[in-house]
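fwd from M.: "can u put these together and see what the complex looks like"

so here's what she sent:
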Amino acid sequence: VSDGAVIAVLRNSDAARAVARFAAISAVALAVFAAVLLAAGKDPLSAYADTFRHLFASAYGFSELLVRVTPLLLAAVAVALPARLGLINVGGEGQLYMGAFMASAGAFMFPGASAWILLPFVVFMGFLGGALWAAIPGFLRAGKLVNETVATLLLNYVSPLIVGYFIFGPWRATENSAYPQSPRYPDAALLPDFFGTRIHAGLLIALAALVAYWLIMEKTRWGLEMKAIGGNPEAALRLGIAVPVWIVAALAIGGGFAGLAGMGEAMGIAGRLRQSLSPGYGFTGFLIAWLAAGRPLGILFMAFLFAIITSAGDTLQISQGLPYAVVNILLATILFVVLGRGSGFGKAK
Amino acid sequence: MTTPLILGLLAGAILSGTSLLYATLGETLVERSGIVNLGLEGILLVGASVGFSVAAVSGNAWLGLAAAAAAGALVNLMFGWLVVSRKANQLASGLAMMFFGFGASALVGAPHVGAVIAGLPKWRPSWLADLSWVKATTLFDYDLLTWLAVPVALLVWWALFRTRWGLGVRAVGESPAAAYAAGRDPSVLQYQALLCGGLLAGLAGAHLSLSLTLTWAEFMTAGRGFIAIALVIFSKWNPLRAIAGALLFGGTEALELQLQARGSDISPFLLQMSPYLLTLIVLLAWGGSRRLAAPASLGRTFYGSS
């Protein structure tokens, strides 16, 4: 393919236009956030420069970006899949914790098993944990009992408490009692990591999940049925599509992916179960899926972008002495600018 | 159970329920005008943080209270700009406000973590304090916000159901097109409802930090905003029923504290789950049948005017 052809494709493609549009939006959001930092008596330019240097000046910094992309991709797919049916899953955070919890239970259940058995089992348990947790709002919605938005939001607050109960109680590590956490998982339950960095096999699982999401949506009858429900549930029901079953299934599968994100953070990064597993990956995943309008490539792009943004949260914390949560203002500003423009992404409904 | 225990529970329920009631009333007003604000959690956080910070800096809790109400109104007006003026998706806009509240409250509150404040003064009329069954409890020993909680609920009810303004707000919530045809401007009424709702949500947040805990901690509202949204459904969008709902949830929290104080064997983590699970159960029991009570145009964007 000649350079000219590539440029022609880029010029005409929707993807390129979307990227250009989003670059403009990001610039506005960064400027607004800079003003906020300035008002707080901080130096926004040095904060941005620190973030940039931290991420791109060394191979290690860049590897940390990929470490962060891993849970974000999974959390975004967890939102995007049910969204095709018009379901709003804002419970990724809770499903993530439930996945980590169940995976931990699996690891502690068979401490002597070999990695060939334990690793797949732990991955399965992570998926199962998130899936079961998301199935609850699924059943409530399918039975027209409780709106899934409210139910998923409420359950976010419950699963970290379940994790808290276990790491303060039955699973509390004995060797270091100052910091409540579980004992280390058996080595066979740990996800392998690559190149001496913290990048772990969860990244492959996340990429596989994204491909699976694309395949299911575009290449299978299931995807077609789900999109039909999203378009017009009444018509889908009359066509003989089992709408209630799909509502439960889509939320459960989505929750399963969020559960895998939690499993990855526990088995790939921490090596133990902790209450501080996620700095809000579940919520950020919602933003990614929403801004990407559920498109797989868009999710990949946005996951990288939000990995950079949330890394800025670490910089704020370390070099500027601000709470990590302040980075939420930047997330809000991006969303605010996109919504305020009143066109493009997610204009539906 | 003994009488002092029950009275203690009731006293705790009223104190914990206060902020939930203000938050529920604020959301009721907003939802009656046809707008769902999922960002309530963030607004409560902003109210708690701004209220505490201003009180810590100025040494005056009343100033903190006023600042919290103003901050709540400001955030709601920003939300209004998105959903009313720009006609953006309400759920996504609400989440944007939630994120904003998470971040802004952390930013504002950070320098004041651990600060010691006087809090809102509590006041118990002497003729009540002298009653023998009241003496041993904290019953009726409340700050101004708690004393005014039920009167404010009555006021919101009166404004919604007995004034021309309230009729307009409810009309917009049911059918903005009809309200517009009748000569009412839906945008103006929605902004007004958002302004009042924001004031109430700001007060709700401030009550947590200025009266209940006397501290600021990140994410200290712990989902109360979402519980309040569920309470709006439970109370059928009626401010008077919201009183019962807020008492029920305040009671759960009070029971939780009582059990912990008495050294109960139940894990505090399991106790802390109870409000969220109770909310789900309440929605499960009453939510479905109450859908008809919802404003007919709740969550829909009106493109007709302007």
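replying to her w this: Chain B has a mean pLDDT of 87.
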